[in-house]
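REVIEWER CHECKLIST
Item 1: Sequence provided? yes
Item 2: Single chain? yes
Item 3: Sequence as submitted:
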Amino acid sequence: MKHSIADAEIISLPTVDWGGGDIRDVVVLELTTPDGITGLGSAYTGVSQVRNALDLYQQDPASLHRADAKTLVPMSAIDIALWDIRGKEKNQSVSELLGGRKRDRVLAYATVDLPMTSAKPGDVFDKTLRSVVDQGFRAVKICIDNFGHRDRRKSESQWDQCEAKLLAFARSIVGKNVRLMLDVYGSDPNWIGDYDWAYKTAKILGELDYAWIEEPLAPKAFDDFARLTQTASIAIAGGEDFILLKDFENISKRKVVNILQPDCTRVGGLTQMQLIRNAASKNGIDLIPHGWNTAVGLAADLQFQATLSEARYCMVEYRPHRLITDVLKNDPFSLDSEGKIAVPTGAGLGVELNDDFRK
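Item 4: Structure as written out by the authors:
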């Protein structure tokens, strides 16, 4: 995708703690063509990285899609912005450019962090989960602090019983009509969960009607992942830590997961997301974007998911923090009565940057 760029504004977002002390740089990029058409993009990286990637793109536009893992992340912002520009030039939404809009709304799921070792974890569970359901969410992914990290002061059976009780308690709070998922952060360098633990936990989740378990194993434990995917009673999700297309192709070919979770703002933008989806769909694997990003990233995810006609899982991750609510004009994202978000209908991504956000 080649465009002449007359101007580029790279906005560094406030430092964000995504939970557990995980601090990440995030930027929003606005490109302007010589004709005055603007395009928005976003990436999980810093200003200097995006500036260097933009210099590289302007010297060699083909570099956009042959970058290495280090460069693909900042290139993501450029690619998304170029799709936005292309849509505005053709007066079509990005979803129409990506193959046609098949749906106007996409189910949103909340991601909530919950304690396991506080004095009264049940009270926090109750307050937090009731709050997200009251906000209108009909799908919730829970991340329980220290889940899977056994307390050595307790026996394995005691710790397992504690985990099982918390999973059941979460289900009892949200009720049977809310989709519930568990993320156990198997990408944590200190992760100790193995196949036996993952299988046992997936069995409990299946009995409680959870939709999926996310990252129950270390990201590169492909053999155990594939075995678990074949034997577990619920869907296995993962893949957010990977960037290169060849890795997603390998994961898909080996059927390592049931649900693949690439991040549009890390893997090279919407162009690479299309290629990843093609690899996944050939092998019967669903794709749900990893979406802890900005409002621009959410807009891209919505346009991408709108192209799905039939899928067991069609969702976007939605956490209404300030990088979602403050970035765009009129905060275009809200939940309807079914917990879904309307896909923006305007040309390109269908969203505009909030002028106050530039200050």
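Item 5: Key structural point noted by reviewer: The radius of gyration is 20 Å.
Item 6: Recommendation: ____
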